[in-house]
Amino acid sequence: MAKPSEYSKEIANQILQRIMDGEMLTGICREEGMPSRLTFYRWMNGREDLKNDYARARLAWADFWAERVIEVSFDDAGDFFIENGKAVADHARVQRARLQTDNIKWLVGKYAPRTYGDKPADDSESKNLTVSWQKIERVIIDPRHGQAPPPAQITYDPGPLPARVDPEILVRLVNMIKERVPRADQRSPDAVLDEVMGVIDRALIAEYGQPADASSANHAEVT
């Protein structure tokens, strides 16, 4: 009898029902009147409803065989036999049952990992893949010149002073000198001016550093 190739909803439902009852798709498709396994897979192509029903049938199949593991584990019939009036353990049967349960547990865990897997999937974990890029700069050193020179340092350039100074600034500076310089009214203006200019000069050097031309001049004087 030729195997059906055209899609049949009735036959598809029969296959799904038998899978939920614990049968294997390969065994079902070997029977007469049933499509080949490859034909059944072709039926699922383009039929989302059949594909979803098959996935649910596989979960029911996993439930069936998970319960079968419990039955085999608690079935101790035949684990012992009587020999010369003594109970002897049938180790071959026990090992066979253990092999069956181990294989069933492994396969059930693959079909229903969320329920029977060793490490159920965590839905709270993000499924998004984040890709970040890092800039890698390669420096080629000429062996003829030894190590690469250090990078040039950044210097502060305050720029030229404005050509015109606001008179208000001068007034504020004079008032500040009168308020803060001790005994400013008891000394000559030249002495007070020299002292204030020295303080301002030291403050500017502490804040902005020694001017380049001044450093060169000091070095020349020391030499």
Topology:
Blueprint lengths: L8 H12 L4 H6 L6 H8 L3 H27 L5 E4 L2 E4 L1 H21 L1 H4 L50 H14 L8 H20 L3 H11 L1
Antiparallel strand pairs: 1-2
Protein model, in words:
This protein has 223 residues and is mostly helical. Helix content is 55%, strand content 4%. The chain is built from nine helices and two strands. The protein has a two-stranded antiparallel ribbon. The longest helix is centred in the N-terminal third of the chain and has 27 residues, at 48-74. The mean pLDDT is 76.
Provide key terms for this protein.
223 residues; elongated; Arc Repressor Mutant, subunit A; single chain
- Shape descriptor: elongated
- The number of helices is 9
Give the SSE order as H and E letters. HHHHEEHHHHH
Fourth CATH level, the homologous superfamily of one domain? Homeodomain-like
Order of strands, main sheet, comes to 1-2
* Second CATH tier, the architecture of one domain: Orthogonal Bundle
Oligomer: single chain
CATH topology value of one domain:
Arc Repressor Mutant, subunit A
What share of residues are in beta strands? under 5%
Helix percent reads: 55-70%
- Give the uncertain stretches in residue-range form: none
Structural class: mainly alpha
Please sum up the structure shown.
About 55% of the residues lie in helices and about 5% in strands. With about 220 residues, it is mostly helical.
